[in-house]
Structure formats: C-alpha cells, structure tokens
Amino acid sequence: MAPIDGAEVAKHSTKESCWIVLDSNVYDVTSFLSQHPGGAAILIKQAGMDATNEFKKYHPLDYIKQLPPNSLKGTVDPNTFGKLRQPKPETDTPVSETDTEHSVPHVSLCVSTPDFEKAAKAVLPNKSWVYASASANAGLSLKGNLEDWTRISFRPRILRDVGSVDMRRSILGHSSKYPFYISPMGTMGALHPGAEPEMVRGGVRKGCHVVVSTASTKPNEEIMQSYIDAQQQINNASPSKLFFQYYMPVNRNKAIELIHRVKKAGYKGLWITVDTATLGKRTADRVLQAEEALAVGMAEQPTTDWEVGAENPDAPAMGGRSVDGFLTPHLNWQDLAWVKKEWGGPIVLKGVQCAEDAKLALEYGCQGILLSNHGGRQLQTAPSALMTLLEIRTYCPEVFGKMEIYLDGGLRDGSDVLKALCLGATAVGVGRPFLYALSAYGSKGVERCVDVLADELEIGMKLLGVTSLDQVRPEMVNAQRLLNEMWRPDALTARSRL
Questions:
Q1: Which positions fall inside the FMN hydroxy acid dehydrogenase domain (predicted)?
Q2: Which positions are catalytic?
C-alpha cells in the first residue's frame, strides 16, 4: 500500500469525511463520530491533522483498537507531513514547562493552597480549566463543601508543651507521615503531560499516600511502575503507598479482570466508588461541549451526561461523557460479597453521604468509608462530607473505632484537616489543590502542596495545644450549632430507620 500524501489527508476534514493521523497511520473515523464518547466535535477539530499528541493526552495509543474495522487507510508519506492541516494557534494554551517560571510565580511563593489554583488558571487552556474546576448544576454542592469548614471553630488549650509535634497516621494499616492523602482524580494528562506518574513521584518524595483513579490517563500498571521507580530513587525510604479507586463496569467479567489486574500490580486497598450510578450534570462542561459542536457545524449533536474524563481502556468516561458499559448503575450491597472475594484485601466505600449507609457499610464488613459528594460534581445540594461526619456522630457513633472513616471535599487548609480529625476522621483526602499544583509546577508543585498543608497542620496542632493526633477530641472544636442541625424531624425519622 503506497503512502498517502499529506495533502490528501488534509482534504478529509469534515463530518462527512473525517481522517486523522495517529502515530504516522491514517484512520478514517467518519463512522465513529457518533460513537465517540468524547463527542464528534473533538475528532472533527483534529480532522486532516496529525492528532497523535492530542490523542495521547486522553488515551494510550492501543485505544485505536476500539475503532471500527477497516478504519486504517495506510501510512502518511513522511515527506508530506507539512501538507497536513495545521492546528490554529490557541491563545489560552499553556506555556511550556521551560517557560512556566516566567508566567506564574515561583513555586516557593505558593504559601497557601489557593495560590496553586491561581497559578493553574494562568497556564491551563480553558478546556482543561473547566474540567478541573467544574461542579454539578449551579455549583451549590461545591459551595457547601468550601463554606461548611468555616462554620466550625477551635477551642484552643494554653500552657501546653508543644515543642515537638507528631502528625503520623495509619491508613488501612500503612503508616503515613501525614493524616491526609492525595485524592483520586482522572484525566491528569489533560492538565500536565506527566499525568499521574508525575503526581505519584511528588507524593512518594514527600511520603504521602496516593489514591489512583480508574479514570487515570495512564494504565494502572504504568502508574504503579512510576511509583516503584520513584521509591528506588530514594532507596525505598518513603512510607508512601498507592491505593486504587474503583469504578465498576457493567460486565462482571470485566469488573473481576480489573480487580485482579489492580491486585497484581500491587495496590494496597480498593476504594469502591458508590456515588456514580450516573454522572452528574456538569454545567460548564456541557456549555463547552455545545461550543465545540457549534464550532465544527455540529449544532444538532445531542447532549449526554458527561464529565471531562477517561484516558485508558478501563476508564468510565471520556471527554466528560459516559462510556457505555464502563459505569454500572446496578451496583448494590450484595455485590460487595463477590468483590471482597476477588480482591482479598481492605475495601473502602467512596461516596457515603448519610448515617444509614455508614452503618450498613460496617455491617457488610467494609474496612473503611470515604464521606464524599465527589467534589460537588454529582448531586446538586448533596451534603458536604463534614455534615455527613456530624450526622454519623449523632446517629450512629458506634461506627467510630470499628472502621476507618475518611472524608474529602473543600479542604483547603491544614486547619480544615485538623477539624476533621478532631471530629473523628481517620484521615482526609485533598484533591483539587494537588491537581492545581501539578498543573502549574509538576511534581515540584505536588511536593510544595504537601509542605503547605503539613506546615498549616503543625501550626494548628501547636496552637490548639496538642502534640500528637491521638490527643485530638471532638470537644476541641465548636460544632454544637451544626450538631443541632442534625436534630430535625426528617433526621429523627432517619434515626428511627437505623
């Protein structure tokens, strides 16, 4: 088969005839436009071009196998690459890593987590920023996540010897230097070329545990290898461990296969996501999708439930849209029996949002629960993790001490971490601050973000009058006003059902 001239490829740049070049091969993706989970507009925008670099932000190259049969047209003539359509320059594309220091403050000037957000917004293209910052519907759940932490204050004790502070905590039996970990987040390749391996390297170097998402850009085996390599570089001196956040696909065989792969790779715990029976309505993402469709003459393209997402063959979403079969709406309590059998290790339920389910998780033998509303990206006006923690303290306090309780959502300061620990949390997950730090500064930003949170936590502990985390108690915070909100008629009804 003779090589295809780049000028010929460039002619096929419409929805009626759409060709793209991937790794020097030419593919006709016209029939795949309506099936592409990321939307047809994304493919049409790359039509007639070398789409390899853009493609690799979201998929490993073997994802090409998902294209319809006979999509491969041949190879592009290497002498005619210059005749391919060229991407239009975008004013909001991020600067290269070599130029980053001239466009954002030096990483040492990030002294609080909001500083990382400002830096990320300065360098990220609009599409990536929308993905990272978007929330469900009108954003009320995200707003609640952030604001609820301000509704609790401390009750400091004085005249305590606080010359030395110990911040260590154990997560599922694995010691950590800190009582916080890096939360699972998908599609990091759209925000930084190093993606999840770069995040892991930063976590390992600072001794911080990391939970890896099913929706990661890179395959979970590659991410684990980056962890192993990073540990070897420091003679395995870091206590950092990797855990895996699990989205269950519809097909039972695929679900089991993924569990076995994760187990074989060496992840230390399975964090099952239980709050995604469907994807929430990400309003900003939908606007972006509509704009992309209009730009390529696809105004009639139907909208779907979507988030900006998935980048490997196991991912449950792509470009924010659900991938059929990769996000089950049928997950139920009985499924935990076979999952536990196949996994054979500790299980955490990620996305618990009420006291009843916390108690059920204990009854079904889970080792932990993660109180979370998915960063405000799922249900409109879902409870913040803090409010769920208080509800559990009110209606089923017996859960504390019998399984580990984590929470995430809206934590932006080490003092927020300390408040959660006072109220009984085992540890907390921090997501967006680390994602923003990665976006702007790579693994150096991740390390800096750990330092910022640890510094704030140490200061908070000393000013509160404690030197180790086994000293923190609920009476060290003023939470009675929020606890009173638990005693509502509907809450009393809920209590009677427990």
A1: 105-482
A2: 247, 275, 374
